[in-house]
Amino acid sequence: xxxxxxxxxxxxxxxxxxxxxxxxxILPLRLxxxxxxxxxxxxxxACLQEMGVLFACLKDNEFVEKYCNKEIxxxxxxxxxYMDRKFEAKKTVNQGIVQPGNNLNYKQLNKYMxxxxxxx
Amino acid sequence: MGFVPYTTLSSxxxxxxxxxxxxxxxxxxxxxxxxxxxxxxxKDVSHVPIKAAPNDLSDSIFYGVLxxxxxxxxxxxxxxxxxxQLLTDTLETIKRTQIExxxxxxxxxxxxxxxxxxxxxxxIENSRPLLQLSEIKRGGVKYQxxxxxxxxxxxxxxxxxxxxAAREKDRKVxxxxxxxxxxxxAAHGQGRVxxxxxxxxxxxxxxxxxxxYRWS
Amino acid sequence: MSLRxxxxxxxKTNRNxxxxxxxxxxxxxxxxxxxxxxxxxxTVQATPAAVQKQKVSKAMKAYLERANxxxxxxxxxxxxxxxxxxxxxxxxxxxxxxxxxxDIDEAINYLFPSGLFDKRxxxxxxxxxxxxPARKAAEFDETGRPFHSMFYTGKPNYFQLLxxxxxxxxxxxxxxxxxxxxxxxxxxxxxxxMAGSQLLRKEQLERVLVEHIADIExxxxxxxxxxxxISPYAYKSKAFIERFLKPLIDQSKQxxxxxPKIDEQGRQYVTTYECLRKxxxxxxxxxxxxxxxxxxxxxxxxYFSLEECREQLLFPxxxxxxxxKVDVEAxxxxxxxxxxxxxxxxxxxxxxxxxxxxxxxxxxxxAGLLTRDYRRRERKKFGQEGARRKYTWKxx
Lengths: 120, 216, 396
Hints:
The complex is a heterotrimer of chains A (120), B (216) and C (396).
Chain A (H helix, E strand, L loop, with lengths): L4 H7 L36 H13 L8 H23 L14 H10 L5
Helix pairs in contact in A: 2-3
Chain B lengths: L33 H4 L4 H4 L19 H10 L5 H25 L11 H11 L4 E8 L2 E8 L2 H18 L6 H13 L4 H15 L10
Antiparallel strand pairs in B: 1-2
Helix pairs in contact in B: 4-7, 5-7, 6-7
Chain C lengths: L1 H34 L3 H8 L1 H7 L3 H35 L8 H11 L16 H4 L24 H27 L14 E3 L2 H8 L5 H15 L8 H5 L2 E3 L13 E2 L5 E10 L2 E8 L6 E3 L10 H13 L7 E7 L3 H16 L5 H9 L30
Parallel strand pairs in C: 6-7
Antiparallel strand pairs in C: 1-2, 3-4, 4-5, 5-7
Helix pairs in contact in C: 7-9, 11-12
């Protein structure tokens, strides 16, 4: 006689017997002491918003720059700030020199975790 | 474990550089002319060795940093003295034209700039682009992506465009004349160079949708 | 030097220890041989611990051999140096006892003139301690047990130094905290003045440590030292810090300003010989009460047809506001116009120092007028189009 599948579904699936299927720890149930640098290499995109504002202003004023001095200044300041930060980072952060703060680069994180590893 | 914040004491560090191409060791500083010397702290520089002044540096009233840079862009095959001659001729032509204009105009004589250096600076400032288009390949399609320019690069482009426009014109006219026209045009906010810059800005604007494609 | 002396002392004490050990070993043996042929065995069994201590390890033996050899070598070198010094003194007609290193250098320069470009390739005579680098003393005792707990790092001195720096820093940090609790402030007058000094360079540090260190290790040293130095109480461990500092020369007082002489017309004058730039060579005379007359090889400033070169000549004069107050005479040879102008410019600037005040000299130095321009034409390289430019790459 055919038993309708709905009957099993209502009861729910019986749990596996732990004796029959013993748990295997294939990967250690512990976080690694390193992080990969993939996500960090991130975007080079900077000052998108300023660029948008600048474009809007330029379009409104028929691309005459003298009416958009404020926007232009803001845009250039933003880019300069970004480039300076990048240059500074090249000197310190990317070498993994640890600075106080919560915004850490992957190299800095790795250095930290090497100092304070997960308990074995 | 005590944690000490890291600060760089640049004066103390003797970092090893990658490969030094210069004859001077890395701790040598660039020469400082008198005008800037009021800003710097004398105590800091008293121990710093200074590079020898290059042979295009001088304290004469005809010396200008921007002018020096333009001279180097005009130079072809190392003939610097010819370039200097050309630039002097250019500035002379500009001066002549401006004085002529001054004499023709009856009213508002203050609006005509006779100072050639100021005209040159105005022309270059006016023709400086803000953005640049760079080609980026994504999924087999090439996109023109607007990218911000550094200050140095924008000055370079402005001077290059001015020179290119001058060199492109009728071959029977000498370069100083053509360059003088271009510079005067640019200083007044018109002419081919300004148009080129505006075109570039227009293109950047039409490609603004791709701006976030920039990476690497 | 002190380290070297210390090392030698260490070697000596070690060797003494060893010799006494051998003697101790040998003496009872002689007695034992007289009494019984296998006495040595008996003693070994009787006092195993003591004898095991006296056993000399292979490493120690090899080291001792090497050290002896080196000592002998240094001794002969020293002897030869003394004899050479005496000979030189005799040749120069001087007293051998008071013959200093400077005298030696002068004598060698006089007796063996050399046209070799590189100064290191020219003949020289220096004390063997300078010529042969210092060696490390024994780092382990006779049984092969290392003295230093960090012996197996391979660079015990370096790591010991790092430890020392950190202990010093921690001490200062504790002090700062105690002072803060008490409400005291660091003494501003005693603050360490770092502008005139610099940390030892890598090579110098290596010489101090008698160990080779990697770039990253040097970087660790510098950052540790910086952490120590920025502490507000750094002056408390001044003696420690100064061991690793090198004073910088005050650039403005580096060169002695010549005293002007008086010529037959009663005018002051200074002559600078050997003004070099590129391949040009000049000598420049500047006379003080003058009218601004410039003479180059008997001609006036029109000797240079290029405007830039004339501008270069006038640069130091106008910069020090001496234009029209001095006369300049120059003789130039070799090189092209810009090189000659550069040579004369340097000569004028150097001579002008005698006629202006100290502050003006400093501003001239900052403008780069007093620096000798050592840049030369870079040679063309084979396989390249020029000095730097490569040939256009062509696949085939």
